[in-house]
Amino acid sequence: MKAFVPLEEVEKTIGVVFRDKSLLQRALTHRSYLNEVGYPGWEDNERLEFLGDAIIDCIVAEHLYHKFPEMSEGMLTAIRSNLVKKEALAAFARKIRLGDYLIMSSGEASSGGRDRDATLCAAFEALVGALYLDQGIEVAREFVLSFVREALDDALEQAVTKDAKTRLQEWSQAVLHKTPRYVTEREEGPDHAKVFTIAVYVGDVVAGRGQGASKQAAAQAAAEDALAHRDERLAALMAAQNEDRDEVPSQAEAEAT
Asked: How far is CA 71 from CA 61, 67, 248, in A?
């Protein structure tokens, strides 16, 4: 079977020489190509994508489990999600110019398919699946982790920031039985470089403020600020709620009167 891409160049780029070249070729084959030419016996990369997706999840989960032995399950899940999401795997694929090697229809290529996140993500997963079948789990693991190690700090930072609103809401509902409210106080700057200021309220108390280039970023910053200063800023609200509880007579007291 004729190779339509320079497989040796792909192998040089990824640092692995395949024993079974057809696995590598299959990993690079987008289904649009088979729809266009219809070669009998030629497979696209979707089954390898399915396998690679599961392998990447397992490799990343194991790596995080050992690297962060004291971290909660929720935070580990958040970091893993950042590392295996479509955009992250597509970025990994771009590092090795995987889009340049994909076998796809002329229509798919001309419409930007070689740089589409979904296509690159699927191709990266398929390549990992092919590596696993051809070289085993250790080679697949080292290949995946070579990308994960570089991306880990950013994934960790994203998980901490992204989780701020969730953590504040969980704490506020558990301790104060109130849901935080986010209010946009200011929008400053030109349209292409706006800065938003958002305050987060718990009850009638301003629990935190934050700024960012988007409302979402500003809200996350406000939540982080609230979490960092929740004891001092929400003490009065907690005290007021405790006083209200003390003033409400119990059922026994009410019946006695």
From this structure: 12, 9, 41
Per residue in 18-75, pLDDT tens?
999 999 999 999 988 887 776 667 889 999 999 999 999 999 999 999 999 988 787 8
Burial of 129 (0-12, 13-18, 19+ CB in 10 A): buried
CB environment 34-73: b (16+ within 10 A), e (fewer): beeeeeeebbbbeebbebbbebbeebbbebbeeeeeebee
How far, CA to CA in Å, does 28 sit from each of 12, 143, 168? 15, 17, 44
SS3 content of the chain, % helix, strand, coil (to 5): 70, 10, 20
The CATH 3.30.160.20 domain(s) of the chain lie at 164-248
Catalytic residue among 53, 134, 163, 225: 53
Span 164-248: which CATH code? 3.30.160.20
Q: Give domain 7-162's CATH architecture.
A: Orthogonal Bundle (1.10)
9 is catalytic: no
Distance CA 131, CA 16 (A): 8
Catalytic residue from among 108, 125, 134, 224: 125
pTM, entire model: 0.66
49 close to 76: Cβ distance less than 8 angstroms: no
Residues 6+ apart with CB under 8 A from 158: 82
Give yes or no: 154 in active site.
Answer: no
